């Protein structure tokens, strides 16, 4: 991990337009700060998807229309907060299924298992720790019973256009003909609503971004001075992209001793950290088509801020 992390930092901070990958946000402290973000009133995404999965589990399962038994395979299960209501509906209605949460973090998986065993003791659960696609290729393609894959939380929005297509193609390749995919996608809406969700007045999102500099300092004995960097984000309603940056507040040189590397920053130079893409329905149709998938149904929250899109093989 540290070797890949190191290589990615060197590549990103020596590029003409500096960048750092958002996948490194989630150390222990970063994950805690993100929990704060999810509970902000401005951050509508969590509540919107929670509403869909809480109020429409029957509609989702009826539309999926699997014969029992079947699998619910969740990619990046995390704390299982949103998925719980769907699982609870299935268990309470004596539906024969197996829950297969996949996550790269053993600690997160342990916490999830403990919570589910307490709240849904009769749940048939088969946890897997590792890479999504390794698990899917080894297990999902080898079983005869159908699977509903869950890729929730608008994670697809953190991928550039071509990367999103590649990701969905890879998911398609790891789906059996009868499988289906429930994909969380944030929708275009009032630009002010989106801007407030990613640039909150409490500066929690700023702390979330700058925590990455803390992580780099700790991991590689660095001397990033956190107060010498600021946070900026911008939503472009034309292309639906929120782009987030850290801003160097002065001309400075940062040394990472364990890498024996130094990096120069100019006054007001940007470090791009994240993209969060918002989609309209036409873009979702086009993305599915490029990935040899087709939209079966949109499950929307009451404000139509968010869609859990049911996709099947084309």
Protein architecture, described:
The chain is α/β, with parallel strands linked by helices and 314 residues long. It folds into two domains: 2-42 and 192-277; 44-189 and 279-313, Rossmann fold (3-Layer(aba) Sandwich). Helix content is 39%, strand content 25%. The strands form three sheets. A seven-stranded mixed sheet has the order 3-2-1-4-5-12-11, with helices on both faces. Strands 6-7-10 form a three-stranded antiparallel sheet. Helix 2 (28-38) packs antiparallel against helix 10. The protein is globular. The chain starts with a helix and ends with a strand. The mean pLDDT is 95.
Shape summary? globular
Determine the N-to-C terminus distance: 37 Å
Q: Return the CATH topology of the largest domain.
A: Rossmann fold
* Global structural class: alpha/beta
Task: Please tell me the CATH architecture of the largest domain by its name.
Answer: 3-Layer(aba) Sandwich
Relative strand content: 15-25%
* Estimated radius of gyration: 20 Å
Point out poorly predicted stretches: none
Largest beta sheet: what is the strand line-up? 3-2-1-4-5-12-11
Which H/E pattern describes the elements? HHHHEHEHEHEHEHHEEEEEHEE
Which sheet architecture does the biggest sheet show? 7 strands, mixed
Q: What count of helical segments does DSSP give? A: 11
Give the total of domains: 2
> Mean pLDDT score, rounded?
95
CATH C-level class of the largest domain: Alpha Beta
Helix content, binned percent: 25-40%
The CATH superfamily of the largest domain is known as Vaccinia Virus protein VP39
């Amino acid at each position: 991990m540290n070797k890949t992390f190191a290589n990615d930092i060197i590549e990103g901070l020596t590029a003409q337009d500096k960048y750092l990958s958002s996948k490194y946000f989630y150390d222990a402290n970063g994950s805690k700060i993100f929990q704060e973000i999810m509970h902000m009133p401005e951050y509508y995404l969590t509540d919107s998807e929670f509403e869909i999965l809480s109020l429409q589990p029957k509609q989702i399962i009826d539309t999926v229309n699997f014969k029992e038994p079947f699998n619910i395979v969740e990619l990046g299960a995390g704390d299982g907060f949103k998925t719980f209501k769907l699982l609870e509906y299935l268990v309470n209605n004596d539906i024969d299924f197996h829950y297969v949460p996949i996550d790269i973090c053993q600690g997160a998986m342990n916490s999830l298992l403990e919570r589910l065993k307490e709240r849904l003791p009769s749940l048939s659960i088969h946890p897997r720790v590792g890479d999504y696609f390794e698990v899917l290729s080894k297990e999902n393609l080898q079983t005869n019973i159908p699977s509903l894959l869950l890729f929730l939380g608008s994670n697809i929005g953190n991928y550039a256009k071509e990367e999103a297509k590649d990701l969905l193609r890879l998911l398609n390749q790891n789906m059996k003909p009868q499988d289906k995919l429930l994909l969380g996608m944030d929708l275009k809406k009032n630009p002010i609503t989106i801007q407030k969700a990613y640039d909150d007045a409490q500066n929690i999102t700023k702390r979330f971004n700058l925590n990455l500099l803390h992580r780099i300092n700790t991991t590689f004995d660095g001397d990033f001075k956190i107060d010498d960097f600021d946070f900026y984000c911008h939503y472009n309603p034309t292309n639906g992209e929120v782009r987030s940056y850290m801003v160097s507040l002065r001309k400075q040189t940062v040394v990472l001793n364990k890498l024996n590397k130094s990096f120069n920053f100019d006054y007001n130079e940007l470090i791009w950290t994240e993209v969060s893409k918002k989609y309209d329905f036409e873009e979702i149709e086009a993305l599915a088509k490029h990935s040899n998938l087709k939209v079966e149904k949109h499950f929307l929250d009451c404000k139509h801020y968010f869609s859990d899109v049911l996709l099947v093989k084309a």
